[in-house]
Amino acid sequence: MNAYKGKLSYDPTQCIVCQTCAFVCPAGAINITCKALKQSYDFIIWHNSCTLCGNCTYFCPTGAIALSDVRAEALPQSQKYTAITSSTLTFDRCPKCAEPMIKTPEALLNKGFSRLDDSVVALFSLCPKCRRESTFTKRVL
Ligand code: SF4
Ligand code: SF4
Predict the structure, then answer these.
(1) DSSP string spanning 35-82?
(2) CATH number, domain at 73?
(3) Which terminus of the chain has fewer Cβ atoms in its 10 Å neighbourhood, N or C?
(4) Distance CA 135, CA 132 (A)
(5) Higher model confidence: residue 5 or residue 21?
(6) Residues with Cβ within 6 A of ligand 2?
(7) Tens digit of each residue's pLDDT (9 = 90 or more) over 18-32
(8) Does the global pTM surpass 0.70?
(9) What is the extent of the structural domain holding 67?
């Protein structure tokens, strides 16, 4: 990840690549591209385009993206395309079926569960399909 300090900070370890931030950004300042058959994502913030509306930070479910302490940043034209935060997010593999998957960060689990125990953390380390199967097996069999 490049370390440009712009209007937004971004923590790839907390990002679940839900793409909400890109969807709600009125300035088109966030670009997320899936690469080569679900192997990785490119995540780019164009700080020059950001209007500081705060939509992305408000709707991000994990707090992965946040407004920094940089506010009125006027950039020369020559830096228009270099004032970026870019990161490549690599898919993990489901420990059960080896399908590519995005890890669920603890910040998200904390929102959904009042108490996190090992069984919940283990369940959410699986891909959605294996998680469903595991829950179904426990409930039905
Ligand atoms: S603060 Fe607003 S304009 Fe800037 S990246 Fe987020 S959603 Fe886009
Ligand atoms: S930064 Fe937040 S809103 Fe954007 S893709 Fe990552 S988790 Fe989703």
Answers:
(1) ETTTTEEEEEEETTT-----HHHHH-SSS-EEE-S--S----GGGTTT
(2) 3.30.70.3270
(3) C
(4) 5
(5) 21
(6) 15-21, 60-62, 64-65
(7) 999 999 999 999 999
(8) yes
(9) 8-90
